[in-house]
Every structure is written in C-alpha cells, then in structure tokens.
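hiii so um. not sure if this is the right channel but i have a protein structure encoded as tokens and i wanna go backwards to a sequence. like what aa goes where. can anyone help
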C-alpha cells in the first residue's frame, strides 16, 4: 500500500519472471485492493494471470473489526472491475469463518461476490494468528463446511473449496486444472481461454 501503484508493478514483474523461466507455468496472483486504483488493476491483468484473486476475508458486519482500514465494498469493487476489464479472467476470493458471522451473512457475502463476478470461492476456519488479533468465536464443524460448499455451488460459483484447513491458496493448481478440464468438456469455454 505504500507504493504509488499499490504494488501492481511487483506482481507484473513476478509473473513475467516466472514465465521467463517456465513459459507454461500458470500463475495465480493474490492482490491487495490497490487503493482502488483502476490503472493498477489494468496493469496486473495485462500479464494474464491464470487466476486473479482478492480475499473478501469476512462478512460485511465484521469488516470494521476484522479488516480495520479496509473496505468491504472496495474489495467487491476490485473483483467487479477485474471481471469487467476482462470477462474471461478467472477471479477468486476467500472467506474465513468462525468469527461470529451468521449463515445469512455468509450467504449475503456469497451473493455479493457472485454479483461482482467472482468465479472461485474458498472458505476456511479463522485461526487467530497473534495475541493482538480478533479472537475465534467458534470452530465450524466439517458438516457445516460441506453445507457452505453446497450453498456456494448452488449460488453459481464455478468452484468452491470449503473446510477447516482451507486457505485461499489451498490446492490452487488443482482447482485451476479441474476448471480447465471442465472447460474442455464445453461447460466453461467462455470463462477460460
């Protein structure tokens, strides 16, 4: 955030460096909000990452507590802008649960992500990273995670990964590969190049 372009140039350089070594490598990028800078989003999309990812992290009500200084609507706008700039670009986001959110709030967040054009969703258990971070309110059961996965799939996400140990980068290549295989079967040809 302290860089003028929000770090967009660094993402571009990393993708280009990876491709210089291995031109067939697929690179997923997990970006910050770039301070809402449209030119930063454009710059990153120009290198055609396999997946453009930005994590929503939590539900709207908990945003000021969990992501102080960040914006729920700003995160949604970022994903929406990326999809608008390149409708074929796969987009991804992640939600942490166990922070006190209700199922209704989680559904509202899923709805908002789908409206923003988000294709892939990961849902994982929040784990407190340090003593100064927000406390865990509860541990979500494996059955609830499976229920959340079904809700996400019913909501139209192309892929949902949901479980206590799931993180935004969890099985990223597996997810991409599975979506490519589905595309070859003709289901997602408009979404994947």
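sure thing!! here u go:
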């Amino acid at each position: 955030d302290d860089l003028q372009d929000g770090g967009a140039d660094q993402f571009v350089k990393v993708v280009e460096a990876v491709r210089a070594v291995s031109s067939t490598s697929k690179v997923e990028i997990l970006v910050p909000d770039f301070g809402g800078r449209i030119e930063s989003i454009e710059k990153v999309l120009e290198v055609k990452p396999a997946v453009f990812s930005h994590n929503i992290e939590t539900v709207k009500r908990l945003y000021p507590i969990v992501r102080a200084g960040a914006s729920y609507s700003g995160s949604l706008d970022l994903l929406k802008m990326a999809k608008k700039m390149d409708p074929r670009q796969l987009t991804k986001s992640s939600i942490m649960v166990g922070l006190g959110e209700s199922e209704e709030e989680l559904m509202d967040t899923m709805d908002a992500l789908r409206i923003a054009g988000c294709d892939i969703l990961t849902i994982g258990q929040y784990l407190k990273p340090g003593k100064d971070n927000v406390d865990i309110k509860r541990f979500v059961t494996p059955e609830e995670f499976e229920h959340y996965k079904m809700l996400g799939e019913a909501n139209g996400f192309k892929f949902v990964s949901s479980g206590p140990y799931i993180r935004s980068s969890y099985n990223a290549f597996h997810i991409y590969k599975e979506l490519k295989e589905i595309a070859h079967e003709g289901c997602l040809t408009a979404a994947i190049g």
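oh and The chain has a mean pLDDT of 88.
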